[in-house]
């Protein structure tokens, strides 16, 4: 199979779908890899590094025109959707539930779009989302602490305590991979941390992991209101695989928060869990609503692209190899977890949760029909 790796064109995005080490693994198995020139310059790899690993170097048009499968990081932008073709495989993050325009573009293309974020595992996890959730969780506290500085519009608080002064209060909505990593960072900086979570099993796991260093609370509307309004920093880390994120904090609640408090919305890729959230970029990451600072960057891990690219590659490479070795139909038929990643095929949305969010129907039946073909 010929695998194409284009340069990411989303603003301030320097990650790359395949690093040279991943290319070498594919080339050793007889696959061809074509990489857009300069694709990984932002993380310190040159075209010669890719040539040494066995890749061809080409312009973006040739990458899309000659590859059987495109491996990316972020969702395809409009110009990239226009270059996709019927029957071509696209393997990347999609986050279609909050992006009907992208969904329409992928349906028009006829491409087979497999989303990292809906691939599952035997433990009920999302193994291709987990590495970026780890990065985003840790970064959420880092950027939140910065936003709490007075010059950034924040309350003027240091997130950790100093002698005689109370530490900042951090509330984390969601105790999954992103939320637990956010909690770990906040604890490490000395904050007072509360995690709100609906899964009792996850709450038990959080208690076992952190003990008395956190306040782990079952999430109800009353609990959300109580701990959000008392917080200096709120981190939204709630996820429903493939679906639009639930809006846990309404506009009225935001208005009732202290001016200078900070909201960091890790769930913004899936629409966000604060009603006042809207996507931002690394170039202009924040804005204020009723004096409350919002950080809603849609590609948070892109701020640390070298770390993120390697972490993502280590998780994605086995699935890229399966798709390349077997072809997409056999690879998905053999692996129900990879099959869960199928989001678009034959001009239709195939993932049930994504289809429901986009108000489309018959996704499950279509996926079963395609796998049986």
Secondary structure topology:
Layout: E1 2-5, H1 20-28, E2 32-36, H2 47-53, E3 56-58, H3 60-66, E4 69-71, H4 78-83, E5 89-92, H5 100-109, E6 112-115, H6 130-147, E7 169-173, H7 177-188, E8 192-197, H8 200-210, E9 214-218, H9 221-229, E10 233-236, H10 251-256, E11 262-265, E12 286-289, E13 292-295, H11 305-326, H12 328-334, H13 336-339, E14 342-345, E15 348-349, H14 352-357, H15 363-372
Parallel strand pairs: 1-2, 1-4, 2-3, 4-5, 5-6, 7-8, 7-10, 8-9, 10-11, 11-13
Antiparallel strand pairs: 6-14, 12-13, 14-15
Helix pairs in contact: 1-2, 6-7, 11-12
Oligomeric state of the chains present here? single chain
**Helix amount, in percent?**
25-40%
Alpha-beta content class? alpha/beta
Name of the CATH superfamily of the largest domain: NAD(P)-binding Rossmann-like Domain
- Return the CATH topology of the largest domain: Rossmann fold
Q: In one word, what is the shape?
A: globular
Please state the second-level CATH architecture of the largest domain. Answer: 3-Layer(aba) Sandwich
CATH C-level of the largest domain:
Alpha Beta
Keywords:
Rossmann fold, 2 domains, 8-stranded mixed β-sheet, 16% strand, 15 helices, 7-stranded mixed β-sheet, single chain, 15 strands, 373 residues, alpha/beta
